[in-house]
Every structure is written in C-alpha cells, then in structure tokens.
C-alpha cells in the first residue's frame, strides 16, 4: 500500500480538526460564565463592619453560605459544561434535535442559577434589617456603574 503526502496531509488535518473540537469543548469562553443577575453575599462579607452585622446575622449568613455555595458551584459548572457541549455540537454539525436538547440543558441550568440567586436575595432580605438591606443594595448598584 502506497502512502502519499496528500494522504498523510488529510490524516493530519483530520486529527488537528478533531483536536480543535476537543479543545473547543474543554475550553470555556467569557460569555459562558455571565455576570450574575444579583450577587450580594460577597459584598455583604466585604462590608460586614459598615453594615454593622450582628453575631446572629453573621451566623445566619455563614450557615446559608455553607449550604448554598456548593449547590451554586455545581449549577455554574453545569452551565459551563452544557454550553461547551452545545458549542461543540454546533461546530460539528450534529443533528438539530441534539442541539436543541443541549439548548434546553443550558436554559434549565441558567434557570436554576437565576432561582438560586433569587433565593439568596430573599435570604438577605430576611436576615438583614430593612436599613442594612437598603445600604447593601445601594453598595451593589454603585458597583454596577
């Protein structure tokens, strides 16, 4: 069997293309981890003294964070994984039904993330006094500018 440079070139090109798809799948891009719709916990901890948080409030916030953070991190990883799989599916020209299933997976993960952020805001409202909460919101909105 005779191997030509053209055959070798085709094989190498195919291998490089396959490797680039694998890289595309493994790599996330800036838009894959969009800025959360509301992110108050880090700000609350940063401005703990300014907000004059009580020991009971700190305990409640710490408890919530210990429970919620692993769940949130898992959801965020699912978003990254689902978007990566969708990107690869699109680039490889997979069947539309497969792409749409992955689109739904992305949407479901994003919805879970939004619900988690919503619950966190509700928790802040419950733990902080109305004055502390308003101060926190003001600090948050200033940071968005």
Structure description:
There is one protein chain. The protein has helices spanning 5-26, 41-46, 48-51, 55-92, 96-127, 130-144. With 145 residues, the chain is mainly α.
SSE class: mainly alpha
**What is the overall pLDDT average?**
85
Tally of contiguous helical segments: 6
First CA to last CA: what distance?
A: 67 Å
Contiguous runs where pLDDT drops below 50 for at least 5 residues:
none
Range of helix content: over 70%
Secondary-structure blueprint of this entry?
Blueprint: H1 5-26, H2 41-46, H3 48-51, H4 55-92, H5 96-127, H6 130-144
Quick description:
The chain has 145 residues and is mainly α.
Characteristics:
145 residues, single chain
